[in-house]
């Protein structure tokens, strides 16, 4: 459909080269395999090393998509201007108090990157600690990573990625002079944790395959090659990160894949002490620690608690045999996050897609909750940087209500509104409506769908709809406020979020029933959401533009193969579409840690056949595909650029509809797209222009 709204240009011809792979006696042919750069590890660090033939092909793709979208240039500028106009350019966060200071983030008018600042605790002159715009000057890409001030507030460890490849360099800044020392830690994951004496930092170094393999301790003022190796994770199937406790007593080494976790402890006052194991990794058992004075609180799914429970253990003996239940599991209500303070225990939970914050007085066990009345909304638990406090911070928004930030007194139960998100160009809440639908899936499950529309948009089936979904790793998509999507809604679009299986919107079982052998439920849930929107007369199938990114891009590829007639267009950002080939390539950064999510097709023929049955690239066939837009980043270590490149080539070869397939690749960015808040809006404007073009709303 709508093929005539795109000008006629010849798509790049993608050369086919013979290549085959045999696993479990099954032969697969992959004529576009050559688009995978043999030196991809080198390209992540230096994009200029990309093979010349591949570069020419990718540049040809950019030329093609630019030609097909040329008539939207003015629309893109208009969309960008609208979205920029909804941003308070000189915005500033409400500073978080910690000791003698309060720390926050601000922007300047016209600035792309944040400033990190502090003031005296109760207000006063602002000191800019890091100026993102200054640091980004002359760089094609710049993204701030971790920012961690020392316990004595005299130094700041900060990191930045300058390629989009998520290799971060860490520097140490003296906060009395605001100058960086000679310390330079390269090829890191970006995060740091200071020791208790403020003499050095812990950090994780990435290996050549972009995996977090080694934890080091760096004493400030020394060279990186002198850093002490504290822990090495030798199983490529596990991620590793380092975090600290709110009392600066402990450093946590957190090791996990998508279903199993392990934590080691280091006393923060003895940074080179031998790490202490809390509970050895056990397949399917997850846990994390929060310090609560003389106890640790443990969020875990042990003993079959699929929706998690909270336990405690003495700090002096935190091993599993000493865990005692504090908050029991409630089936269908998943506990997502825990915070501990001197007098209170706080947790964020979700039931049937809606969150609430629960507060328990530690001495009495008395509980109360914070919740809201809208049909669909989002809560964020920000807690406090300090342990001895009765005041925590949380945020609230809905699809119609801009974000509000509150301080909440856990004793008096008083809420103080600190800030409401400003929309400089104006936002009248009453002009918009939000709804929550339940779409029946084929197996009888009900899939929540959050809806945003302008009050004047006719709900008679004539409205176009952008339907967004993700559905993987247990990640839930909140029904939160977004200024960008208003540009579609104000043009008569319905914006919908399908809370499909693969996320934890309805508890852990909702996630379990959307992974591995149940993965197809993710795709059929999304199709069911589309069908329900049509059945309820919100829109028509040829007016639905589906949108998803990363694992949500896999969703886009799968639903396009399974039900191309159900969608008028597809937007797939950095799409994970070459699933089988990627899961068969254990040299790629995320492959071994991803096996628990998707299955291991190297070791298991069953897993191989399951993934092969839905892998979008492997299931492209001769059928009428709708117009499709795919995006990618050359230095993306998470979903490599060649996944989208191969998928697009195969779609063009197979599609019988004549509809265009566009591929937009950023040659100077990675998984998150371009850096800079305004440059990112330009990418959103491009996607929305495509959606409007497909819906004949130019």
From TrEMBL:
Coiled coil feature spans: none
Pfam families, alphabetically?
Answer: Peptidase_S9 (PF00326), Peptidase_S9_N (PF02897)
- Family recorded in the similarity comment: Belongs to the peptidase S9A family.
Query: Which keywords does this Swiss-Prot/TrEMBL entry list?
Result: Hydrolase, Protease, Serine protease
Q: What is the protein's name according to its record?
A: Oligopeptidase B
**PANTHER family named among the record's database cross-references:** PROLYL ENDOPEPTIDASE-LIKE, PROTEASE FAMILY S9A OLIGOPEPTIDASE
A Gene Ontology molecular function term for this protein is: serine-type endopeptidase activity
Report the EC code(s) recorded for this entry. Answer: 3.4.21.83
GO BP of this protein: proteolysis
Instruction: Please state every residue range assigned to the domain named Peptidase S9A N-terminal.
Output: 14-420
Q: What organism is the protein native to?
A: Pseudochrobactrum saccharolyticum
Question: Is Hydrolase set as a keyword in this record?
Answer: yes
Residue span(s) of domain Peptidase S9 prolyl oligopeptidase catalytic: 480-695
Q: Main EC class of this protein?
A: hydrolase
Which branch of life, at top level? Bacteria
